[in-house]
Amino acid sequence: MSGTALYWDADYEIVLALLRAYPDADLDNIGLHELSERIVHLPDFADDPELVNDAILRQILRDWYEESGE
Predict the structure, then answer these.
(1) Under a CB-based contact definition with an 8 Å cutoff, are residues 13 and 54 in contact?
(2) CA distances from 19 to 39, 42, 50, 51 (A)
(3) How many of the other CB atoms lie within 10 Å of CB of 49?
(4) Can you give the C-alpha Rg of the chain in angstroms?
(5) 10-residue block means of pLDDT along the chain (70 residues)?
(6) Closest Cα to residue 18, out of 29, 51, 36?
(7) In whole angstroms, what is the distance from residue 70 CA to residue 56 CA?
(8) What is the pTM of this model?
(9) Per CATH, is 11-68 categorized as 1.10.10.600?
(10) According to the model, what pLDDT value does residue 70 have?
(11) Looking at residue 69, what is its pLDDT?
(12) CA–CA separation, 57 vs 32, rounded Å?
């Protein structure tokens, strides 16, 4: 736990947390629902899960893909 609360608008911080929590994730096979579930289960996630939309999730997935070096 890093101690910094994660909110939907903190794309980069969420991506860093996902990289730590799921270093071997197969990003080509993660759907938006599964991505959302993984994010809300991150230890520092503090936002309302109902506030997310597909555009936010797609951006996070795109950033995660880029940061993972795939």
Answers:
(1) no
(2) 11, 11, 23, 22
(3) 12
(4) 11
(5) 84 97 95 97 96 97 91
(6) 36
(7) 20
(8) 0.90
(9) yes
(10) 64
(11) 83
(12) 6
Identify the pLDDT of residue 22: 96
CB burial of 5-34 (b: ≥16 within 10 Å; e: otherwise) equals ebebebbebbbbbbeeeeeebeeeebeeee
35 and 63 Cβ atoms separated by less than 8 Å: no
Tell me 45's DSSP state. B
Domain boundaries along the sequence of the chain: 11-68
Long-range CB pairs of 42-45 (<8 Å, 24+ gap) are 42/6, 42/14, 42/17, 42/18, 43/1, 44/1, 44/2, 44/3, 44/4, 44/5, 44/6, 44/17, 45/5, 45/6, 45/14, 45/17
Rounded to 10 degrees, the C-alpha dihedral 19/20/22/23 comes to 70
